[in-house]
Amino acid sequence: MTKIDSERTKVAVPARGKLPSVKRIGGWHAIGPIVIFLAILVVVAILTPAFIGSGGLAIIASSSAPILLLALGQAMVLNVGSIDLSNAAIGLLGAILLALTLGPVAGLSPVIVLLATTAFGAVNGLIVAYAQVPSFALTLGTLGIFQAVALVASGRTTVYVASNGEGVHALYESGIANVPMTFWMGVLLAVSLWVLLRYTRIGRGMTAVGKNESAAIFSAVRTRSLKVLAFALSGFAAGLAGIAIIAQAGSASPTGLGSDLLLPAIAAALIGGTSISGGVVNPLTVIFGALTVALVPIATTAVGIDAQAQSLVYGAVIIGVVALTMSRNKSSIVK
Questions:
Q1: What are φ and ψ of residue 252, in 5° steps?
Q2: How far apart are CA 36 and CA 322, in angstroms?
Q3: In whole angstroms, what separates CA 62 from the centre of its chain?
Q4: Any one cellular component term from GO for this entry (predicted)?
């Protein structure tokens, strides 16, 4: 082995008990998601001023709420270097369980659903962390499992909230600045996660795992526990998304609202500046990632793109926006 090869194999190991340094991300990574959203919004405002003037912003925010909640959960998993392909299915299953249980147990139903979805996410994390199953393969499998359970639980039909749904419906019918509380629920979660990541040892440890798991292990970081926590948070966020779906639609179906949110949620996390390689995330900019994903279909319609071509354009725009907003630095590898 040459001297150069030897140098390349060395891994910088911080002192035991000290977290590896995690650089703060600024510049374009911090403002890019905001700039992209505002740029698309300006285009829509110029082409269809009536939409913006007639409560269009509230419509965008309300439609982005489930996407935002799922994207925040996905971002936490991406931050530790994994991915959760099942969190949208967990959210939809949570919505079905909520619709089924609101009648019998009333106010306890949301609590039960959140506990269940958090447990589903934690089980994913336990298998990834302790059985060493790759997160992509595992959650691809549990995606199918949760979809099957949702089909069985719903009887392959739409499940409506029969009674005791007033409190949940109020989350969509009431709001601040004409924006439903379901969206503000996502904003509150984003702020809470930002505080966790920025100011707590647990949050810094999660980012360290995503940056360099080997260094984190040598620093006595409990990497397995933090991975479980990340997946549990993804499950919790999915449960909140399920509540948002019921608040908006009053019903849940395996093929209805929420059944196609997996890719939009991942796109929102990436547009929000989350690194798919791990170790870089800002929950606050994920908010604008979700708003952008909700805005793009409206923008394509405003531009006058044919309905049959909208999916093609939507995909191209998402790729372009992710390319503009994702983090790149010398220490990261784009996988």
A1: -145, 145
A2: 10
A3: 16
A4: plasma membrane
Rounded to whole angstroms, how far apart are CA atoms 121 and 127? 10
This prediction has a pTM of 0.88
Are the beta carbons of 70 and 238 closer than 8 angstroms? Answer: yes
Is residue 234 within 8 A of residue 84, CB to CB? The reply is yes
Q: What is the pLDDT of residues 67-123, one digit of tens each?
A: 999 999 999 999 999 999 999 999 999 999 999 999 888 889 999 999 999 999 999
Which domains are present in the chain? Answer: 53-324 (1.10.3470)
CB 274 within 8 A of CB 181: no
Distance of alpha carbon 118 from alpha carbon 286, whole angstroms: 21
Distance CA 111, CA 282 (A): 27
161: CB partners within 8 A, 6+ apart: 98, 99, 102, 103, 168, 169, 246, 250, 251
| Residue 251 DSSP class | E
User: Euclidean distance between the first and final Cα of the chain, in Å?
Assistant: 27
Question: What number of other Cβ atoms are within 10 A of residue 144's Cβ?
Answer: 13
Distances (CA, A) of 141 to 9, 26, 85: 35, 36, 9
304: exposed, middle or buried (C-beta count within 10 Å: 0-12, 13-18, 19+)? exposed
